[in-house]
Amino acid sequence: MSGDPDDIKPVTCTIKPPVYLQIGDDKTDAPHSGVCVVDVTLPFGKPVNIEEITFKNYYTAYVTVRLLRRSPGQETPAKWCTAVRDVPLMENPHTEGGSQDYHSIHRTQMQAEPDQVSSVRLILRQPSSAWLTFSLEDIKIFPHKQPDPEKEVSDWLSDLTLIDQHPDLEGLPDPQTVSSSIQQMWALTEVMQTNQTTASIGRFDVDGCYDINLLSLT
Known about the structure:
The chain is an alpha+beta fold. Helices cover 19% and strands 32% of the residues.
């Protein structure tokens, strides 16, 4: 589960017994088809925005999640949609690897937004005949919670204050020394502008004469 379990509690829901699809009409002797359906009903009249679905595997090779949901802002009847399809739960359907691991399916993994959901259908598949039964255990559905804008602003201001209190000045000169040097340079500039002469200076003029050595170097 992503997030603090003390902050987000699972939704109260009704998990119906698994229904195994049979091959043929005689349900007593017909073999399993390798497909099982588990329906999870959410509280009546209280559709849920799902954040995450968690469960413990029991020899299921693949799981498909379908959601009965109503489009936000619309009064049309709820429709079934596929959130994820054939998510692998075992490394190999014929071996033990991953057969009893815990798994989670987050809303970011779902192809459809899991909002306004009234029922969840888990379709389980086990193509291997090595296992007599397969299912999912400890199924939990966690609701999606919008972040608190006031808390986000408060956290941002706390980080900003912390940065202001501890600026990284390593390797920088002392601000007072820099300020003093700038003031001295400004004062020197003012003196030079005041004493500036208007007499023209020739490029090679030395005491009113041209230096032949300077001319020969150009």
